[in-house]
Design goal:
Elements: E1 6-11, H1 15-25, E2 30-36, H2 43-50, E3 55-57, H3 60-64, E4 71-74, H4 81-90, E5 94-97, H5 105-118, E6 122-124, H6 132-142, E7 149-157, H7 167-170, H8 173-176, H9 179-194, E8 199-207, E9 222-229, E10 234-240, E11 248-255, E12 258-261, E13 264-267, E14 278-279, H10 295-308, H11 317-335, E15 341-342
Parallel strand pairs: 1-2, 1-4, 2-3, 4-5, 5-6, 7-10
Antiparallel strand pairs: 7-11, 8-9, 8-15, 9-10, 11-12, 12-13, 13-14
Helix pairs in contact: 1-10, 4-5, 5-11, 9-11
The protein binds nicotinamide-adenine-dinucleotide.
Nicotinamide-adenine-dinucleotide (NAD) binds next to helix 1.
């Protein structure tokens, strides 16, 4: 048995899980000790591959009944997230939950309420908030270098075609959901981190590439959403999963003292030359590969918060609930041809 404080059980042993296991095992307090998968798995093989002692389970119920497991990490198909997360909360396990939390707002609320009722903490994998790009961007904002933001855009450009492992389930509405739910949610979530005011309403339009790579998709794979904030600010988020170009996580934030554009900025406060951008040294988000994602920093923050009995910073269930309210309102607007939708 692990000598670390938190034993973690993985639910769903796919691509994301492999990156999660390394990140959890690299944390100071946690170790993966159990894995459930719909495929038969061998405990000895898993232990040899990932280190430590890992027990394979062939039902979620048996894994959740194990009193030695303190945290579960749900990396299954999106349509399975709600039932598994609610069952985990009822079993009093803290929860790491891959995005999307679920593919409908009632399910997201169910997960949030089950965690609150059972006194367990949640971490949603909006790990981009812990990336070098977003941490540096947020620090520039928090230092007041660009003043008060009145316009911001964060966009996600990443073609999820047949060359991508998720494609087989991502093309379906049931698990893929929408351009925002399947991947654009990272950009919308990052925009909401940079612009913390309450969103009043959203207007969204969606479309689809003519490329045959994307023909099998059951939903529109490009969407653009305009956000109207209650404080008068305006935001924009493009979620483009049918492009043929390098991965691009675009950030442009405009404030009363300056702007941030990706890894560049201008700040009147610093009296830099407005005719030229100043450089911001950072690692830009430039890949959809889970092995490049900052899960380790995110999970470390989650376990540190568990130690203190607190909600984790930045990506708690409550933080993610705010993002998903905007996403589902945007998808409703797009389905209605761009009618503005109030964010409840
Ligand atoms: N945060 C991110 O940036 C990020 C990146 C990748 C995936 N994800 C999310 O992680 C979750 C899982 O995605 P993934 O890419 O790991 O998907 P995946 O297809 O690799 O695995 C998903 C599930 O499918 C099961 N599975 C995989 N192959 C199987 C097979 N041949 N037979 C039976 N079951 C099989 C796995 O056990 C797992 O439960 C999704 O919610 C996805 O949106 C998030």
């Amino acid at each position: 048995m692990s000598t670390k404080k938190y034993n973690v059980g993985i639910i769903g042993y796919g691509w994301a899980a492999t990156a999660h296991i390394d990140a959890i095992n690299a944390s100071s307090q946690a170790q993966v000790t159990a894995i459930y998968s719909s495929r038969p798995l061998d405990s000895a093989t898993l232990s040899a591959k990932h280190g430590g002692k890992i027990k394979a389970y062939d039902t979620v119920e048996a894994l959740l009944a194990d009193p030695d497991i303190h945290v579960v990490d749900i990396t299954s198909y999106p349509s399975q997230h709600c039932a598994q997360a609610v069952a985990a909360a009822k079993a009093k396990k803290h929860i790491i939950l891959e995005k999307p939390m679920a593919n409908s707002m009632p399910e997201v609320i169910q997960i949030f309420e089950a965690a609150e009722k059972n006194g367990v903490k949640g971490c949603v994998c909006f790990e981009c908030r812990f990336s070098s790009q977003m941490e540096a961007t947020k620090a520039v904002i928090d230092q007041g270098l660009i003043g008060e933001i009145h316009y911001g855009e964060v966009d996600y450009y990443h073609g999820i075609g047949p060359w991508y492992g998720q494609y087989r389930w991502n093309i379906g509405k049931k698990d893929g959901g929408s351009a925002l739910l399947t991947a654009g949610c990272h950009a919308l979530d990052a925009l909401l981190m940079c612009m913390p005011g309450e969103v009043d309403s959203v207007t969204s339009f969606s479309t689809k590439s003519k490329s045959e790579y994307f023909t099998p998709y059951e939903y529109d794979t490009s969407a653009v959403t305009i956000l109207k904030f209650k404080n008068g600010a305006v935001g924009k988020c493009a979620a483009i999963v049918d492009c043929l170009q390098p991965y691009y996580f675009h950030t442009h934030l405009v404030g009363s003292h300056g702007s941030v554009l990706d890894n560049k900025f201008h700040s009147a406060k610093l009296k830099t030359n407005k005719a030229q951008w100043s450089g911001l040294s950072m690692k830009m988000l430039d890949s959809g590969d889970v092995s490049d994602h900052p899960y380790q920093a995110q999970f470390q923050a989650f376990f540190d918060a568990l130690d203190k009995g607190q909600d984790m910073p930045l990506t708690s269930f409550r933080d993610a609930l705010r993002t998903f309210k905007v996403i589902f309102a945007a998808d409703q607007s797009a389905a209605n041809g761009g009618q503005p939708v109030k964010v409840a």
